[in-house]
Write a structure and sequence with these properties.
homodimer; alpha/beta; eight-stranded mixed β-sheet; eight-stranded parallel β-barrel
Amino acid sequence: MSKKYVYFFANGKADGNAKMKDILGGKGANLAEMTNIGVPVPPGFTISAEVCDYYYKHDRTYPEGLKDEVNNAMKRLEEVTGKKFGDVESPLLVSVRSGAAISMPGMMDTILNLGLNDETVKGLEKATNNLRFAYDAYRRFIQMFGDVVLKIPHDEFEEILDEAKKKKGVKLDTELDADDLKEIVEEYKKLYRKHGKEFPQDPWDQLWKAIDAVFGSWMNERAIKYREIHGIKEGDLLGTAVNIVAMVFGNMGEDSGTGVAFTRNPSTGEKKYYGEFLPNAQGEDVVAGIRTPLPLDELRNRMPDVYEQLVQVFETLEKHYKDMQDVEFTIEKKKLYLLQTRTGKRTAQAAVRIAVDMVNEGIITKEEAVMRVTPEQVEQLLHPTFDPAERAKAKVIAKGLPASPGAATGRVFFDPKTAEEEAQNAPVLLVRPETSPEDIGGMAAAQGILTARGGMTSHAAVVARGMGKPCVVGCEEIGIDEEAKLFRVGDVEVKEGEWVSIDGSTGEVMLGKIPTIVPRGLEGPIATLLQWADEIRKLGVRANADIPRDAEAARNFGAEGIGLCRTEHMFFEKDRIPVVRRMIVAKTVEQRQKALDELLPMQKEDFKGLFRVMKGYPVTIRLLDPPLHEFLPQEDEQIKEVAEQMGISFEELKQIVEDLKEFNPMLGHRGCRLAITYPEIAVMQTKAIIGAAIELKKEENIEVIPEIMIPLVGHINEIRYLKQFIKETADKMIEESGVDLKYTIGTMIEVPRAAITADEIAKEAEFFSFGTNDLTQMTFGFSRDDAGKFLKEYVEKEILEVDPFRILDRTGVGKLVEMGTKLGRSTRPNLKVGICGEHGGEPSSIEFCHMVGLDYVSCSPYRVPVARLAAAQAAVKHG
Amino acid sequence: MSKKYVYFFANGKADGNAKMKDILGGKGANLAEMTNIGVPVPPGFTISAEVCDYYYKHDRTYPEGLKDEVNNAMKRLEEVTGKKFGDVESPLLVSVRSGAAISMPGMMDTILNLGLNDETVKGLEKATNNLRFAYDAYRRFIQMFGDVVLKIPHDEFEEILDEAKKKKGVKLDTELDADDLKEIVEEYKKLYRKHGKEFPQDPWDQLWKAIDAVFGSWMNERAIKYREIHGIKEGDLLGTAVNIVAMVFGNMGEDSGTGVAFTRNPSTGEKKYYGEFLPNAQGEDVVAGIRTPLPLDELRNRMPDVYEQLVQVFETLEKHYKDMQDVEFTIEKKKLYLLQTRTGKRTAQAAVRIAVDMVNEGIITKEEAVMRVTPEQVEQLLHPTFDPAERAKAKVIAKGLPASPGAATGRVFFDPKTAEEEAQNAPVLLVRPETSPEDIGGMAAAQGILTARGGMTSHAAVVARGMGKPCVVGCEEIGIDEEAKLFRVGDVEVKEGEWVSIDGSTGEVMLGKIPTIVPRGLEGPIATLLQWADEIRKLGVRANADIPRDAEAARNFGAEGIGLCRTEHMFFEKDRIPVVRRMIVAKTVEQRQKALDELLPMQKEDFKGLFRVMKGYPVTIRLLDPPLHEFLPQEDEQIKEVAEQMGISFEELKQIVEDLKEFNPMLGHRGCRLAITYPEIAVMQTKAIIGAAIELKKEENIEVIPEIMIPLVGHINEIRYLKQFIKETADKMIEESGVDLKYTIGTMIEVPRAAITADEIAKEAEFFSFGTNDLTQMTFGFSRDDAGKFLKEYVEKEILEVDPFRILDRTGVGKLVEMGTKLGRSTRPNLKVGICGEHGGEPSSIEFCHMVGLDYVSCSPYRVPVARLAAAQAAVKHG
């Protein structure tokens, strides 16, 4: 028995169904499904995509039996329509369309009215009683067939048409009468001959040529390109199916028409039908845009019965597909036909609202609702966006990496200090070759940040995302001249103070001021959806926050604690940096201790602020991490200034700066290595953390769960050594205070050796937090400050699928995360394991964290909602 | 039944034997062993170290039954000696000594003549017929007992002795007569009383106090410190044993004496007895150095029978212990007694000679011989060393890290160019803050290299070891003033041209010219021993060599191929660097191609040179690895100069230099990342490699086995991408040439991700070579250029046992090596796996490579002999 290749549908019964997209394509499967559920669909049949697969594997030939199956299907189609293919009295006409499992719009044009020829056109005239209509259909068919099937240039058909209109002195096609169209038909035939071809009068010949053309189109340049762009690989799809459907006409008078509709508002999500309708028209007329379509409501006025039927169809479809549908329909003489249905595209706002509404309507479950919204859509809801109309007019002058999403507009300033001052007058945009921790003030004050260098995890990118601030980095096209206070892109010169806008979601840089729309935050449907996500997810979600303001934002967005508080950010504050510098240049332990004593109360206050906001939630505090040189000025000019402030000589400070310079600071004297050299720093920080916790408990009766995190541990002895100092200091303070306070000591896993020897390290560490930024750097051997140059190329040359600093590399870095987690828990079964790198807020990475059994993810406050959703989706997907 | 704690030995029969060192200690076990094999030993017994263990675990008490066992042993000792402990007529005297399983010289003094008191001293007088001797023995015993057992300060005894001599107006102890000594005995007793103590007249009391003292000494400060220094951990040893042996006296006249001897020459290894002899003397007299001992030959003249007996003992001991022995003996009235035997310490030269001779003499196997020589000894044989006499006089002014062993002396120069010129006149020593690839000429010309910065694997250290040149790095005490052309250490100022010497084995820097002794290379016994090593080892040994001269050295030292040829070293040659620079500044592919075309014939000649030397052996060639900025000048002055030479503007070159600067060059645009950006470089290098091989085959009929190695691969797609270019180029050339040439393409595993995903990478790589320098850097997150600062501290604070750049970190980096090897072979069972990092020449690391099943190690040419030995030792140890 030969395989089944043709799937028929008519009169409420179809061979196929919606689950058969792989072989019937999206369009064919849904036509079958609609037929089955009683939605009015013109009868027809689908040739399976398996035929397409066979076609290319067998030198563009068809499998045995296909011809017979098609013949049979056509015979059945004649039966159900009561017409006959090629019949002069009552000709059966069909449309022929492609349709793959994944929608590939524009891959191939549609052929309508197939079956017409010099004889059948007369039958059509009789059936419609409209000579002009019949010849117009014939004229259109010949043109489409020539263009799509025989590749006769479309323009040449248009020329003939234009010529005819010119001759007659009219402007619109509709002004041509039947005779004109008859003449054009003859001219078209001549055009065929001019190209060495003949318009086939035999409908069967037409049909097979059209089928050949559809299968052939699967490998045309446009289709290949489309699949390439959309990451559809060979083997993902069998090929395209071919849908052959009896023609229905919306252009048979005022009781006919055509339209498109959404079952809900795709922009707002409102539960209200939304669509357009054009009376006495065919689909292509809507597209052509010659006439303005009417709103769907108008249909209710004109054909209330049809409208009622359409509404019934909407209800049926939504209940059946459990999602908002995007449909095409045609009304032929008051008879409604659905030509297509598919899940409707929607805005972020609509996606959330529809998902929540559908749960409330009992259509879908909470789990399904959570899967309906993408993390990107949640993100879109949280960042300001440009007013689309204004944006369309803007001039894009350059494009960098989209480092932190959102729209920002402001006057450009190149110096962080000036930017900070100017921000008090009007919005500013900070433009820098790259940023450093000293620029933090300017960054905080700016609407957005634009840098010429750096990658997705450069300082600018990380800080901006932490601040929820739009940021474009690595925009190498902008040549910054800091001295002249301007940047240049080609001929364009942008001077300090001029307005520029950046789109952190696309990386685009635009001239001028573009108004933005502010998100409404976590209110309404999104808040509901994320509550459901919280019920479903197994991963905890914390935030990376260093100051109370960020911590508050994190709480508002639903964070359940702080997964990473970077204490060094506190060291950069204006009133602290001089003390920090005195600590660094100290020549004796005593001098250093004196500076540390001054820092202690300030740090304690910092922690009290954080703990107060995070009442009852755990707070992970990382001890000082960056190399000391980051706290000192680097340029002679600044060194001179700072030396003067500190009362030491330029030469002395310069020497210290030189001594602290490193070839590879990333792999240098930082992290726990600092604390091992200067345990007194760790002791001071412990005093500040524990002191803050004790005081809050005593003074305000606030519970605090401090988790002291030692960074950059690669060997068990590092944590063992420092733990002594920390424990001794903390335990003594707690004992003396009489307060009941629990704290834990753990480590970041960010050096590959830590992951590899995690069984050892877990003997000392009470928790792990994967610092996947550094872990990615060291596992790949990529410096994130330098890799921008070649990473772009790597992605272009398909050496890497994605930037591993953006999406966790599961095969390499991920293997270390998994190994570290397993090894750590082999020693300490209850080891708490989290992630606090940038990946903690990235959906695919979050999914991976769920899969390897981490306890929580921690990300910047503005990514907390995204993380909540992604964590829930991972739980739904993987259980 | 109670445990046995006391082991008796006498008259050819002992309870213990040499294998029982753990409980009897080295001394006790060997006394038992000698007794068993018929060597004359005074009778005695050993109290097991288990008692020491018990003693400390039970609050300094003894196990039940010990007292009885000791009493019994003393009774047996009385029986075999025919004397009685505490007897006035014929008193039994004993010595009491400590002795642990590992020799701990100086842990405790010996107590001799125990058993003497006011009565027994008279018995001794009778037995020896020598009043003075008897009281001298008594005087010595009281002093020793007071000092060692009762902790009465040694000086106070000496004061009494000095006072007596002063009173009598004599200078030497021997000038005191019996009456003087009697008086001193009384004074000593008073001294005891002054310290609130009483000299115990009861010999049993003396004995137990002495035993207490020995066990007590196990935990004295000196012993604890000793164990700490020598890395002996708690639990390694049970404790010390106590040896109680009947006294024999070498000071009973001219027919008595005492001596020490080696069964072979410990300095040269010559098979000739070697020792010293002092007639009429006790052991301590030899140590005191009052009289000059006679050579052993003199014994033959004076007491030929005793000499003959001693020679017999030597033969017996060597045959029995199968190694050269270091013995102590005493002759009491022509009767020979061996008091101790142990394996003799020896020089490197002697070690090798003895091992080889003993194989030839049929005493030991080749495997045993290979285990007898340490890799350090082989190393010592290969590097020049200072003349020890001259060295002793030299003034050490500073100490750095011992980066490359050997002695070097020369006039200091700070500028590599000047050093190179001056080297033509007289030896020079290159002194630099640190070295860079541009200094290579000066380094090659210098006798040795001294740097102020950098660690064990800094550029200077690596290159120096590669050259087999002494080198001291990281000598931070030397303040170099390059402008003034001098360096300062404290008050000492060393100007350009002044003589300085460095010891690359200790890191010491000395003033002045110290003559050196040149090694004889691989001739004589060492050559034989290493041939045996070759028969035994399973690991292949290759060398890292970039030029024919080094390759020749490698071959002479026994390398079986080149495991790493760094092609960039060829790029630094004077005639190439301008072309390389033109390649770098090229703005178009065409310009770059032009420069590459110029480089091609030069590289081809380089490879021909290497291949010619390595005829028939595999040669692994690594494609260009370092970041491009290393080839460009960095200082403005030099940039100006080079720009002029290149005919481009200063600004242009400066800009290029700036653009190439990286924050972390270690993790930057280098290795295969370069070739991915500029595949034309890899293509040029392939052409040079394959072209050289083809030409050599055609012109000289030399077989070449090129292995093309792609550096820094971290992702399979990197090697996949480059392999296309390389294979296409190579295969085309081979086909066109008509020559039958096989080549392979593999990768270095030096990025952690490569080891973790080795199963993937092995799909493309035909061989792996672990680049453990970089792998260590990235696995630990230590920049070797910067880590010097804190690594020293890490070792001091015992966070790391050793510098992981020197000895492969088995737990972390080693785990990656093992994982990479296993994963790689899971994909490609015949994958050839080697190591080419600095660890390839380090014995412990080589052992690890053997254990994880690597195919070969590759190291600098001068370490090849060490590697051959270490590989053989690993094979003997682990099979």
